[in-house]
Amino acid sequence: MFKPNKEAVLEALRELSDKDFQDYYWMGRDQSVMCVPEELCHSMLFGSNLSPNVKARRPVFGPWDARIMALGERFCDLVDKTSGDVEVILASSEMGQIRTEAQSILDGM
Question: What is the DSSP letter of 33?
Fold first, then answer.
């Protein structure tokens, strides 16, 4: 059994919903903090143990699990599709949709 780290998932959702954070930290404007989309993708789904729990049908956030997983997978697909190019990710309309969905999930929880 993998103990889920709910706080890691919530932090990832907050980061995904925050354009100002992304513009500042993902673009490397603060050299003391390293934030890259690839790490966020991994920590949201796997480092948090969300994915193994959901796939084993062990609820983490109950009815929100499916939406959170779909959002994480969509974000990871975008990161893969853009080879992690932060400028391309941030400029994409898909990232805008991901941001909106992340905020919707946070607002509803």
Answer: S
CA distances, 80 to each of 22, 35, 64, 85, 88 (Å):
17, 16, 24, 9, 12
| CA–CA dist 101, 98 (Å, integer) | 5
| Residue 97: count of CB within 10 angstroms of its CB | 13
Cβ pair 14, 103 in contact under 8 A: no
The single residue listed with the structure tokens 């709910």 is 6
Please check the confidence at residue 28 and state whether its pLDDT lies above 80. Answer: no
Phi-psi region of 74 (alpha: psi -120 to 50; beta: other; left: phi over 0): alpha
> Tell me, what's the pLDDT at 33?
65
Long-range CB pairs of 62-67 (<8 Å, 24+ gap) are: 64/105, 64/108, 64/109, 67/101, 67/105
